[in-house]
Design brief:
Blueprint: H1 3-15, E1 19-24, E2 42-48, H2 57-68, H3 70-75, E3 78-84
Parallel strand pairs: 2-3
Antiparallel strand pairs: 1-2
């Protein structure tokens, strides 16, 4: 399973989002710091779910990181998050 699929699976299970886009941006960072050559090091996630209602930006980011788990989060060099309720 690719990291994109792992991210999608984890976030769908945790939040049942209305909107979920997992965009692999690794190709835009080839040769830069953090590029491990795997093609799966830089991601952007757009997610909207009721679970984020009333939560601060920091709390929302923590929720996403927790849902993804420490191992998956550590395997990714960069994760850009666009989170809404």
């Amino acid at each position: 399973m690719s990291r994109s699929e792992e991210i999608r699976t984890a976030l769908e299970a945790a939040f049942q989002p209305r909107v979920l886009e997992v965009i692999n941006e690794s190709s835009r960072h080839q040769g830069h710091a953090g590029d491990d050559g795997s093609g799966e090091s830089h991601f952007r996630v757009v997610i909207a779910a009721e679970a984020f209602a009333g939560q601060s930006r920091v709390a929302r980011h923590r929720m996403v990181h927790k849902a993804m788990g420490a191992e998956l989060t550590a395997a990714i060099h960069a994760l850009s998050l666009e989170i809404s309720e």
